[in-house]
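Dear colleagues,

For the upcoming journal club I promised to circulate an example of a predicted protein-ligand complex. I picked one with nicotinamide-adenine-dinucleotide because it came up in last month's discussion. The inputs are reproduced below in full, followed by the predicted structure.
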Amino acid sequence: MTKYEKLVPPSKGEKVTVKDGKWNIPDNPIVCWVEGDGIGPEISKVMIKIVDAAVEKAYNGKRKFEWFEIFAGDKARELYNPEVTDEELKALSPDEQRMTYLPDDTLQVVRDYHLAIKGPCTTPIGKGFSSINVGIRKSLGLFVCLRPVWHIKGVPAPVKDPDAIDMVIFRENIEDIYAGIEGYPGTKRTQKLIDFLRTEWNVPADSDSLRSSAGISVKPMSPENTKRLVRKAIQYAIDHKKRVVTLCHKGNIMKATEGQFRNWGYEVAIDEFRNQIVTEKELNDKYGGDREKAYADGKILVNDRIMDAMFQQVLLRPREYEVVALPNLNGDYLSDQLAAQVGGLGFAPGANLSNDIFFAEATHGTAPKHAGKNRINPGSITLSACLLLEHMGWNEASEMIKTAVSRAVESKNVTYDIARQLKPTVKPISTSAFGEEIIKNL
Ligand code: NAD
């Protein structure tokens, strides 16, 4: 008997457990995977082959993933709601629309099994449909979006020194302007809010900044969400021997939200990591502003940067930044810019996490025009699997894959997106052939 509506757990393998923040990883863990839409099937299959080969090789067959397929996106709709027509779907509430593509079964399995990886999922265009990804993050409380960015040797990059970039982004994943609290222009509910702001918050009625014709997105930011994010970022810096954690914000303008992000970030640093950190102010007072002296003293520097300046900093002085904690919107922008600096989204890994779930994912979309053509780059989901392996403490297998990806790229046996950027350009190989190339190089 299974407690799930349509899913049957694999008969082999053991459950990962998490107790009081401690992860217990058996040698044959059950790991959930979502194939994804569009190019999802192609890249997910290649990723699984590579992970299986690397784990087998790294641990001489003593360790093995037991894959448990779960469903989101088009495949979920086909399996769980085949009878719902597009017309009927449009008439459903946003939540019901989401459940058509993201069944409770899927969410419950991830809660129970803790580790998962997914390909990209389409966001169906329907009024009010929030994306499947946002649904997953919110329903499972995955409050951190983790995006490490580094340069893989041989990947063509638009900046002079891409190897200077080695950063790990911690992006808040649930609140901020992305919370989905919105009013479309010209609707009754938006007008009510505008009236409220004018009468209760004293916004002048003739203000160009709050016209009656405006649409409104609300930007909530809380100490709870900020602190749990910054806590994870600092703990990561400690665990991975990183030397600096930077809080990025636009607090000079949005004082009640982004300015508080900065203050709460410092608060958690000082209240919970007093002996391990030094703030930028303390760096000046105690170490004469010399960060090398503070590092030599075993301290992690916690500093902050205003967001617009940070975009310049990562271009001009990238070596000064290692772990970066940001609110949701800032994090979205910065992680994509950094990915571009090292050569694009094709090799950008990511994961969403809470204290007891680690959900890795390809960071690009479903690229529908390439679907089924066996030509797309499986690098993002493959390197996302490396994040999963590292989270499990299976670093040997992860390192093996990363090195093999580098070797494949250096030998110029690459998919079209990289091939066309090389100078001179080379003949591209297929998604599956690139996967074989990586496996050959393990
Ligand atoms: P996209 O990332 O799917 O594609 C944009 C372009 O980037 C593609 O046409 C392709 O040229 C290139 N590209 C993307 N992935 C690549 C890869 N692995 N290798 C080589 N080139 C690659 O973005 P989009 O067109 O804006 O979105 C398409 C769909 O994907 C939408 O439905 C959107 O909602 C969804 N989406 C899903 C996710 C997710 O599930 N994580 C993320 C973003 C977009």
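Two points we might discuss: The first strand starts at residue 17 and ends at 19. Residues 120-123, 131, 133, 345-346, 361, 364-367, 369, 376-377, 380, 417 surround nicotinamide-adenine-dinucleotide (CB under 6 Å).

See you all on Thursday,
B. R.
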